[in-house]
Amino acid sequence: MLLTDRQLLILQVIVDDFIRSAQPVGSRSLSKKEEISFSSATIRNEMADLEEMGFIEKTHTSSGRVPSEKGYRYYVDHLLSPQTLNPQDISIIQSIFAERIFEFEKIIQRSARILSEMTNYTSIVLGQDVGINKLKRIQIIPLNKETAVAILVTDTGHVENRTFSLPAALDMSELEKIVNILNEKLSGVPLEDLHDKIFKEVAMLLKQHISRYDLFLHTIAETFKMPATEKLFFAGKTNMLSQPEFHDIAKIRNLLTMIDREDWITNLIRSNQKGISVKIGSENQNSIMEDCSLITATYSAGTEKLGTIAILGPTRMEYSRVISLLQLLSHDLSAVLTKLYQYK
Amino acid sequence: MLLTDRQLLILQVIVDDFIRSAQPVGSRSLSKKEEISFSSATIRNEMADLEEMGFIEKTHTSSGRVPSEKGYRYYVDHLLSPQTLNPQDISIIQSIFAERIFEFEKIIQRSARILSEMTNYTSIVLGQDVGINKLKRIQIIPLNKETAVAILVTDTGHVENRTFSLPAALDMSELEKIVNILNEKLSGVPLEDLHDKIFKEVAMLLKQHISRYDLFLHTIAETFKMPATEKLFFAGKTNMLSQPEFHDIAKIRNLLTMIDREDWITNLIRSNQKGISVKIGSENQNSIMEDCSLITATYSAGTEKLGTIAILGPTRMEYSRVISLLQLLSHDLSAVLTKLYQYK
DNA sequence: ATTAGCACTCGTTAATGTGGAGTGCTAACA
DNA sequence: TGTTAGCACTCCACATTAACGAGTGCTAAT
Fold it and tell me: I want to staple B235 with a disulfide (CB 3.0 to 4.6 A). Which of A49, A343, B116, B126 is the partner?
């Protein structure tokens, strides 16, 4: 099942051509290409072999060939020329970081937008899990007699806030004491551990210093319970509508509905090992994604992986360009975030 | 141009039927309805008159009739029976407020979601303009030597935060002083006035107490400049894909792309007078919306209008039900928010 | 091993025909 | 005079047919 050089060439040209045109590729049009110096009949023979091996398919008996999933896979794994991005693309990516930005979310959102504009695919970014960020400071600000806002600031500058109900019996000086205790004990604790830590370490201390501490303990623990997951950022959700493979409304609706399910997307995209990953069609383990490919790249601060940046497109995707773009972006993004978060 | 009772009846039945079936309504099928006791020939005569007056249209020479925009308008203005919502709908709406919620955004987001699920249309909620909320407290929390987070809490419990660059020359005790001055001078000031107020009232005071106050003044003023607009909440963006009138991908794409333009939607929905408004087709002043109707309702806290809640659907929309739902929801929502914000 | 040639397949498009749902008009009727 | 039955007519929707062309597989010649 080793492919000859000629078969490799033909497979590559077929995939390239189909990615460009979205039309099945025939032997005659292939034979006219510069790269190809043999006749259409020869090509037909080779194509028959490639088809037998499962790399290409016909849409009907007398149609040209279309890459199969296996074909795309082989193309991505072995035939992708390490394409150099065109200088314009490079400068657009770098423009994301041109102005100084302090806020994680803004950088991320902008990255997603620009990526989707450059590619005409959908881009999705999985933000960092704020749960692992360490608490820098807690503030509690009473709004009125009954409610107050709790504000958590992490060492990365992320701010979480919750409004909660204030026990009637609590006076201001006590509240101040509580905030002091919380800051003292919880500073440096990852947000996701706050809930536990409050019961384990703060409860006792509160008991010593605050009358009716019990009224407050539960509320505060609940208030600081972290929401489940990482935040998602989208851009170009409607770009899929421009892809010729999605001329079918039912298909589009299924896909867009899926995309709107954040839990599902999070699972799809979350990735453990660093680097670029390409999932083609049914490799995504979902029938609705069978005409889609998903390319993901992780970004980090220092050595710590923060999140994932992904491009969702049709299986007929510009793999080479998208991979290059993601490589560049994830690298630059990591550099900026590393600096922003002062890793060394 | 006054319509006879019989014409009114026929118009009403045509609109009702078309809203239900999305099919042009013919004289024969009309004559079979219970409500209608005269023959198809009579109906044909009446329909010819209604068409001449512009209330209904043919899609082609020998087709049944379809309501025109004018027909819908008349239907909405005069023929809408003040329908009583079915009890199930009522209880679903009320379930939104069943559990106690303290946060504006959560209530709003949930309202939008439930509304879109109930109607199968797209629902859009325009949040309040946080600019008019009054500042309750400012906090500035240094993250490291170079950056700090500024946190603004309003009297409604809304929290805004910005990360900014800290002048090198500033020491901690000075920062504390600054925060005290800011709180003293800016407390109670609407967020949108902060920027001005800082120059008018805070600048002098800073000058007196802080060396190199100039380094900080501009940064802080910029940091507190409010972002332009009200926040938007969406639900059911893809519901439009299920409507038979949007079988055309290009149309859908235009519409969805429009919906993603927040500035545009904000302008479309923002409404000055209180109460329900129905905009049918081209009344929305935009060619992409010509097959859509938009029903908006405002919600308030006390006497103050906070925002708008809207349903976007095809012109062939269930006006009666949607209007009733919006009336109920905006009423209940206003009640909850009034309470939440402690108006009397 | 390569390629020219040819019969064959099948999708696409245009042309043609048929059935049915609907209309407008006319004449008869209560 | 308002209502209705009847009828000719229109036009969409759908199916059938035909022509075309892009493509294939196979065979035989180079």
Answer: B116
Scan residues 22-61 of chain A and list those with Cβ within 7 Å of strand D.
24-29, 40-41, 44, 47-48, 51, 58
Residue extent(s) of CATH 3.30.450.40 domains in chain A:
87-128+230-340
The tokens describing A31, both together, are: 């034979």
- Which uninterrupted H or E stretch holds B17? helix B5-21
Q: How far is the CA of B248 from the C1' of D17 (A)?
A: 29
**Topology annotation, domain A87-128+230-340:** Beta-Lactamase (3.30.450)
Measured CA to C1', the nucleotide nearest B24 is C22
- Region(s) of chain A under CATH 1.10.10.10: 5-79
Contacts of B299 (CB under 8 A, 6+ apart): B305, B306, B307, B308, B309, B330, B333, B334, B337
When scoring A136, A140, A146, A159 by the number of chain B Cβ atoms within 10 A, the one with the most, hence best to mutate, is A159
Nearest chain A CA: its distance from B35 CA (Å): 37
A288 in contact with chain B, both atoms CB, cutoff 8 A:
no
Residue A326 pLDDT: 97
For the residues B17-39, what does the mean pLDDT come to?
A: 95
Q: Which chain B residue is nearest to residue A254, measuring alpha carbons?
A: B238
> CATH 3.30.390.60 residue ranges in chain A?
131-223
**In terms of DSSP H, where are the helices of chain A?**
5-21, 27-31, 40-52, 69-74, 87-95, 104-119, 172-186, 194-197, 203-209, 213-223, 249-259, 262-269, 319-340
Whether domain B87-129+230-340 has CATH 3.30.2310.20 = no
Cα A145 to the center of its chain, rounded Å: 43
Task: List, by residue range, all CATH 3.30.450.40 domains of chain B.
Answer: 87-129+230-340
CATH class of the domain defined by B5-79: mainly alpha
Per-residue pLDDT of chain A (344 residues; tens, 9 = 90+): 689 999 999 999 999 999 999 999 999 999 999 999 999 999 999 999 999 999 999 999 999 999 999 999 999 999 997 777 899 999 999 999 988 777 888 899 999 999 999 999 999 999 998 898 999 999 999 998 888 999 999 998 999 999 988 888 788 888 898 899 999 999 999 999 999 999 888 888 888 887 777 778 888 888 888 776 789 999 999 999 999 999 889 899 999 999 999 999 999 998 778 899 999 999 999 999 999 999 999 999 999 899 999 999 999 999 999 999 999 999 999 999 998 877 54
Name chain A contacts of B141, Cβ cutoff 8 Å.
136-137, 153
In angstroms, the CA A284 to CA A292 distance is: 8
| Amino acid, single-letter form, for residue A77 | D
DSSP lists the bridge partners of residue A151 as: A139, A161
Provide, as residue numbers in chain A, all residues whose Cβ is less than 8 Å from the Cβ of B249: 241, 246-247, 249, 252
Q: Return d(Cα A88, Cα A118) in angstroms, integer.
A: 10
Mutate to test the interface with B, among A123, A241, A255 (most CBs of B within 10 A): A241
